[in-house]
Structure of TransglutaminaseTgpA domain-containing protein:
Amino acid sequence: MNLPIRLAGPLLAAAMGGLLLLALGRELAVWVLLAWLFGSGLSILGALRGRPPWFGGRQRFFLALAGVIAAVIGEGWGNWLPMFTQMVVWLLAVKALELRGQRDFYQMAALTLLGLGIAAWLRVDLIFAFLLLFTLYFALLGLMWQPLADVNQGLSGNLFQWREFARIAGFTLGFVFLLLPLAALFFLILPRTPTPLWAWAPPAQHARSGFSPELAPDSISQLSSDSAIAFRAQITPPPSAASSLYWVGAVLWRDDGRHWLPDPPKMAHGLGPDPATLGKTAAFRQEIVLSPGNGDYLFALPVPRRVELGQPWHQESDGVLRLDHAPDLPLRYTVWSAPAPPQPLSAAERAAALQVPADTDPAIRALARSFAAGGSDNAAVVQRIMAWFHGPDFRYSLQSPSGYPDGQSMGDFLLRTHTGFCEFYAGGLALLLRLDGIPARVVTGYHGGEYNPVGHYWIIRQSMAHAWVQAWFPGRGWVGLDATPATASAGPAGAGGGTARDVVPAGQQWWDWLQWQWINMVIDLTPAKQRAVWQQAGAQLASLARWHAPSLHAWKEQWKGWPSILSFRSALPGMAALILVFLGIVRHYRRRHPAYWRRRAQRHLRPLGPGNGQPGAEPAFWSTLALPADTLEKLQELYREQRYGPAPTARRDHQLALTVRASQRQLRHPLT
């Protein structure tokens, strides 16, 4: 297929732009995306037809100015990040209309890297790292190829040179691989800021499943499932089953008739850190990496007793863990949870846990009295209510029943439809308990998880967001009650639907483990951890300086002491193997090119003293060699084939080297 040599530049620029669009994702406006597709398409079409730049210089200037103004108006002055995102992609589209030479490609590469810098403030995941790596590769390839294309523009045979392009592509790939260890070194050396450069949080999505510190089920007519990861957690000792994992986020006390809100009462006792008591109980240690987007709430199994976190946080009177500021990057913390000793309810707690709206439907009050009929104790009342919720009349659904297009109220759920998601079940259960004189509160968080056996951690998704109830019993304290039907856990994951799977699918385990390691080794490399890495490396160097022939066992112990955060024990051999593979690839491609063997032929002859080795100077040199006629003739033949022949080979190169060494011996010892 005959293609013009000028086509490579627009194709590489289009590839870089496509990777930038993937990195920016949903932050990109539709009109800018269409403009980029139009500009890139015209650029490729112009390269195929040999057309001069599209539009004139003045027209392109006004196009660029119009796009900048549209970005300011569309996103609003002061909304800097989205505004600059649209500007960069629009300028990239306009620049594609005049992409013809090396200078234009330099500007395209600069705009693309600027766009990736903006995208780096929006996302820090592993996929972005790959997008950045591929973009750098295409940029370097274009910058090395474009000068060759410019030189060949005026030639008659102006066709695509596939062999030369493959050579440059291979060299660029090797160059990028060699840069990776250097980039890793700079990553460890350069200081890191403890806070993100830009406070950016995704917009709230009220119609999708996820954690909420409030309960307002009647405002939602349809709830869609979101499989995004809320956090990952390593639990020690391992839990018995995913269904036993209830991750507490917010505790809701006040019911105003349509919403449940936190508003904790003042308590005489708290659940603050108690390491002495913690060591005597069966505690679960949870090392959690929290994704941004859940506000300032931290999650833990009940009941959090001790927390290790490098950012300011506080524990509210009801045990809820909260940050002073919401994180914008993945946040790591460790929490120990254990059963809390039962405490008597204070007057303020009891009043808050029994509060009901004054305008509660009389039919709901009558329903609650029916469960308490007969003067039964609290445990029997709770048993009747739970059996009623788990009966055949109730059904779990993420959609409002037919006839309620704008959403149903709590009265509709309890008295008529008996169909809804976990917020209805939790709010309805707490309301009935309070009407029967049983202190109760609503808890929102997550239920369950997916276990990844590769990294030995649990994945908790937004689709596992859940709401349940805690009721207070004398001598037992707060006891968790979940009225949501158990069938919800067996079906598709939904808000409050529990867990869809207990184990991550086999095809996703390694990919998710790579993302987990990316967070651990790159995103979560804080300044404190960075200092620890270099302190441990310095200690290792100091121990090597005091080396006095240690035993093999001592070497093994020193090797184990390297920081586990960077996995040096596996990274160093891998880097060495990568460098060796690259050198092998470079040598392989060099040996395939005739110029490589011609240079080697010239170097082989150099020990005999051929002068400057200029072509055509050999006859005068041959006459100075006092060699037998057959040896001289063989030397001349091999040299001519390797230096000037059409197809020099490795076999003749080896023969030439042997002949030169034999000639050296004869010149030193003529009688031999």
User: Anything to note?
Assistant: The chain has a mean pLDDT of 77. Residues 593-668 form one domain. The chain has three domains: 5-159, 217-507, 593-668. The first strand starts at residue 229 and ends at 236.
